[in-house]
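Q: I have 639 residues here and want to know how they pack in 3D. Can you give me a structure?
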Amino acid sequence: MSQVERQLDEMEETIVSEVPGDVSITDVTYEGPELVVYTRDPKTFASNGNLIRNLASKLRKRITVRPDPSELSRPDEAREAIRRVIPEEAGVTDLDFHEDTGEVVIEAQKPGMVIGRHGSTLREITQEVGWTPEVVRTPPIESSTVENVRNFLKQERDERRDTLERIGRQIHREEMSDDEWVRITTLGCCREVGRAAFIISTPETRVLVDCGDKPGAEGEVPYLQVPEALGSGPSSLDAVVLTHAHLDHSALIPLLFKYGYDGPIYCTEPTRDLMGLLTLDYLDVAAKEGRSPPYESEMVREAIKHCIPLEYGDVTDIAPDVKLTLHNSGHILGSAIAHFHVGDGLYNVAFSGDIHYEDTRLFNGAVNDFPRVETLVLESTYGGRNDYQTDQADSERKLKQVIRETTERGGKVLVPAFAVGRSQEIMLVLEEAMRKGEIPRVPVHLDGMIWEATAIHTTYPEYMRDELRDRIFHDDENPFLADEFNHIDGGDEERREVADGGPCIVLSTSGMVEGGPIMSWLRHIGGQEDGTMVFVGYQAQGTLGQRIQNGRTELPMNGGGGRADNVSLDMNVETVDGFSGHADRQGLENFVRTMNPRPEKILCVHGDESSTQDLSSALYHEFNMRTFAPKNLETFRFV
């Protein structure tokens, strides 16, 4: 009998001894990090709200209770009973029954009303019908990404369950080594921005944190071929942790499955969906530009199938000697700081991913309160000594002033915007300013992936700032549904109509003016002298956006059929700083200053050479801690 089988037998004995004598336990198994308990008496568990909580505390496992399939009521009967229990105003849009697991997926416009206070309605559902309810939100804005991901996971449910059982056995396997050490190897994004990738390893375990590309540098990928990563075979990786969905962190996650990786990806649920959206677009852009995509779309689906979503704050076993907890990083929807607890109190490492320390309109600021952190791997995008951003309130005032002045003279405002994060931040500013009469009510046209990314945001309001979440949940005021917002879905014909019309605001990808629908907008309205082009995001060295910022007015365009031509930019050009999703130099220092506890060592990464070295030096002098600005392919041992 294997170690895992012995574990499961012992846990079943413990569960049987803890539950009431008339409760029958029919099976206990692992699915990923969770312990799944099957019972013929789900209604008894549902009637005792503390029973599962007490078992989870005693066994120190995340526990899911499911009914034995033999005890389920018929779906048609259960459907009627569930609808009687759930208040009509919850807006249930679908009930999907899975008899193999005894779960019913309830899709509703207001999931909180399906859950009830402290889960009371969920327990009542199980007491009535025996089925275990799982609740998902009906997207207020229809999202093809969310729909496709949910449908795909439904189709792959059986295979995914087999995969989770295999992963669960791997997580809870017997430890093989008596040695104790922790190492981090840098595979990318050191003294550079992009291709984020790190390996955290112990004698038992090897975990990859992020796997992104390098914007504007085709072919520069993380050093996955080294022995610490995939050089000793894809099976040597126990897990992948994805901090967030931006391509410089996620673009090459699907590539791992092309190389043969078959393990879990831990991330938040919105990160999973956004990764699917952005990586498929990444392949589409590569094909349109005549480049060979690094992988096929099938690998994106494989990555989604292997995702194990975690909520902020959930402590999760991902290996025999590693526990993972994700915390809000304040950067984009679902972005996370990844905290690793290694061994039985041996060592703690946190990877910041990308962070924004202060609250924004969209998100709460990054969490920096951990039980323990000995080493912090910290982003340094704006870590240079002069990298201080404009106060957001001042930035908003300037943006509103530019909009007022432009629309008053009859012009249009063109904003190159990143689809995820900055666009939604700007949308919130515009919605409030129009509602309060601070700028005129004019159409706001959203082009490119912005509308789809916004739809994903509206699906997961619990990941947004407290005040915004409460507005959506309790006040029924979703600012993203404002009448002024218009999705451009009619292509170039609709863009021409907008160009011939009156004052308006256009938010369009790409944010650095490197292809995408923004190029079409430049053709249509770039020559309008009464208009204004406003940059609200970072413009990387060498991009067309940066050249326009620096005064370029003759813009190269692809005319089709291999023909290139130029467009004259006659619009005014403005830059409004302060909307970045990254902490500036002060924010990074404050993040470290207020950390509780403060780490012993910091590795400054994800910034150009001067930024990482400046921040490393400043933190060393201010806090008297060991700091490093590592190069790629360095390895650090911590124990």
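Q: Anything worth noting?
A: The CA atoms of residues 290 and 397 lie 42 Å apart. The chain has four domains: 3-69, 72-138, 159-386+582-630, 392-575.
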